[in-house]
Design goal:
Blueprint lengths: L24 E4 L16 H13 L4 E3 L7 H16 L5 E7 L2 H14 L4 E7 L2 H7 L3 H17 L4 E6 L6 H13 L4 E6 L6 H19 L4 E6 L6 H11 L3 E4 L13 H10 L10 H12 L16 E2 L2 H12 L3 H6 L14 E2 L7 H10 L6 H13 L6 H8 L6
Parallel strand pairs: 1-2, 1-8, 2-3, 3-4, 4-5, 5-6, 6-7, 7-8, 9-10
Helix pairs in contact: 1-2, 1-10, 2-3, 5-6, 6-7, 7-8, 11-13
Length: 411
Amino acid sequence: MQQNEWVYDWNTATPPQIPPGTRVLLDDETLRDGLQNPSVCDPRIEEKIEILHLMESLGIDSVNIGLPGAGPRAAAHTEALAREIATNRMKIKPNCAARTHENDIRPIVEISQRVGIAIEAATFLGSSPIRRLVEDWTVEHLQRTTEKAVKFAVEHGLPSMYVTEDTIRTDPDTVKRLYATAIRNGARAVVLCDTVGHATPNGAFNLVKFVVEEVVRLSGEKIRVDWHGHNDRGLAVANSFAAIAAGAHQVHGAANALGERVGNTPMELMLVNLRLMGLIDRDLSNLKTYCEKVAAATRTKIPPNYPVIGHDAFRTATGVHAAAIVKAMQKGNERLADDVYSGVPAHLFGLEQVIEIGPMSGKSNVLYWLARHQIPADDALVSRILDAAKQSARVLTDAEIRALCTEPAPR
């Protein structure tokens, strides 16, 4: 039996917004934008290097390795990461954040020259009317700043990625003027930002489509269009896919949705959904390791109910659910067991379904646990474990269940 014979998929009842075969690039912001989260600790360089290699193992295309203009520690870490990429001939491509002035761009130039690899300069500045009001900026001032910064980067041999903050709340005329200025002066990638998490999927689609049609195509140049989103409304993943549907080539994200306030688009959930939608086909068995390493290095925690990589993502202690999973397992079909009570197949990410015993469990939970641990399941033992579970306020630990298995039978 094939999967499509037991699952009717309304997701594919109409043609997908993103055509099959569309190449989607991913830029990992964990080690730069992700570290702006007020609750994180800046990892040691050894930890950052380990995370960098996990990104490589997941097939992530590019990585922001820092903002070297921020100070000596940032500069040293940025150079160490660039050197790691160069020395190991890694496929992942580095970029660095910089404000739109020479003092931030020059350190990228120097690191690129010392290490001997191209580093894309992601020069950013605010653009929205509200920011211009607060800063007393004019659009003409932003155009002059853009021209000077992009020219400086390009003249010093850096690929230029031009970024406007808060693009999603910026008027169309300013968007056109700033991006056209950047492209005219040598930028070959533009980044549209939802800096404050304002966007909805409709807004992300509209903005990207506007820039593709009104700026990029009219330029006559080959320009990469990026989407950089934040998750304040809980829509970051949906917004990223809307941006891709509108023509974005690359989307940015950070492990575990780290970043300012509630964070960036979660990189792991982009990878999960790209895999489930058939837009990528790669080994994602290191996904949980990547997320757990980032959490440990930044001294943050992954919520237990977090999709796919959370502790509870593939656990169940509910009797009805467990019974169905056990019956599926007894049919000898891993995919059937994966799918019967889960919309995400655990095996695609190097994980598996886990059945626990708790107050909402049934006999199937106990029988499965005993079989898994090769313990004979007589009626008295099953009843003793199930009675203990029903009196508990939580799932029983393996140690507690084993203790119940070794209790002497009542006389």
